[in-house]
Write a structure and sequence with these properties.
With about 120 residues, the chain is an all-alpha fold. About 80% of the residues lie in helices and about 0% in strands. The longest helix has 29 residues, at about 95-125.
């Protein structure tokens, strides 16, 4: 089942990357990215329900899993910032802030996928 989560995680990341290429088509970009954020949040909720992840917080964890959890937690706060700043851009405000936090978001989101793979490999090995 771990590989399924990794594939889904990568699929959501790919969905979000495709959304970046839709940025010139603002209404489609906004809907696509919002759906991607919802998918990502749903995946996190699914992992929590399936694995009871928060109940394992006090169990021994490898360093990659700790980093993965920290990044996932930070990203939960990043989504509202992106949606809010994207709404400002669609209302005609400057794009600079939205671009900066979007770039940081994608770096973090890529690292989330990488740490998921590394944590799974460390657990298997």
């Amino acid at each position: 089942m771990n590989h399924v989560f990794t594939i889904l995680n990568g699929g959501v990341l790919l969905w979000l990357i495709i959304g970046v290429f839709l940025k010139r088509r603002h209404p489609l970009h906004m809907m696509w990215m919002t759906a991607g954020f919802a998918l990502d949040t749903a995946l996190l909720l699914f992992i929590e329900l399936d694995r009871k992840a928060t109940g394992q917080l006090f169990a021994p964890m490898g360093p990659w899993l700790v980093v993965h959890i920290v990044i996932a937690t930070v990203l939960l706060f990043w989504y509202p910032m992106l949606i809010f700043s994207g709404g400002k851009v669609s209302a005609g405000k400057p794009k600079g802030f939205h671009k900066k936090i979007a770039f940081t978001f994608f770096v973090l989101r890529f690292l989330l996928w990488v740490t998921a793979v590394l944590a799974m490999e460390a657990k298997a090995g």
